[in-house]
Design goal:
Blueprint: H1 2-30, E1 38-42, E2 51-55, E3 62-67, H2 72-88, E4 93-98, H3 108-117, E5 124-126, H4 131-135, E6 143-147, E7 153-158, H5 163-172
Parallel strand pairs: 3-4, 4-5
Antiparallel strand pairs: 1-2, 1-5, 3-6, 6-7
């Protein structure tokens, strides 16, 4: 009897957890919520200059991908991201962002080296204070977002995505 109660409780939590995840994502995408722009430090790496960038940039469709240098799926995403970036060019604010703890286990140079080794050729930024990650309600990597010209999230996706999936989301937001 005890085992059956534990199994039933675990199943209920799984359903509840799945529903909560769906509701959280639904709220972000369904309402008129917009993401307030955040000033992020950019890294000197291929396609990226040291300085700052405002993400998302109002008045432009924005693509944001959250990644980490230790993430093998993030590494696999670099090919599809490169293809999409080559297609959209400057028509879309295209930026990859890491929230790794710079100065602890990884340095700016480590991120730049990883970027170079994996063919990155667009702006790469740091979300050191997790301000953008929190604004997007993002957890985990890779996690990608498309925001329209008013900075409303129109698409998001976790895990590995194809170039076609990303391009379709950008087109739907008016970015292509």
């Amino acid at each position: 009897m005890r085992r059956r109660e534990v199994v039933a409780g675990a199943a209920a939590l799984a359903v509840l957890g799945g529903g909560a995840a769906a509701v959280g994502e639904w709220d972000l995408l369904d309402g008129d919520a917009v993401v307030d722009p955040v000033e992020l430090e950019t890294i000197d790496a291929p396609g990226s200059e040291a300085g700052t960038a405002t993400v998302p940039e109002r008045g432009r469709v924005t693509f944001v991908e959250l990644f980490a240098t230790w993430c093998s799926v993030c590494e696999a995403m670099m090919g599809p991201l490169s293809r999409v970036h080559a297609d959209v060019g400057d028509d879309v604010q295209f930026v990859s962002v890491t929230n790794e703890p710079i100065g602890n286990t990884v340095t700016r140079a480590d991120v730049a080296d990883w970027w170079r080794e994996h063919g990155g050729n667009w702006p790469v930024a740091l979300d050191a204070d997790l301000e953008l990650s929190e604004a997007l309600d993002a957890s985990g990597v890779p996690y990608a977002f498309v925001l329209d010209e008013s900075n409303a999230v129109t698409w998001s996706g976790r895990g590995e995505k194809s170039a076609d999936e990303i391009r379709t989301a950008l087109d739907a937001a008016g970015g292509g």
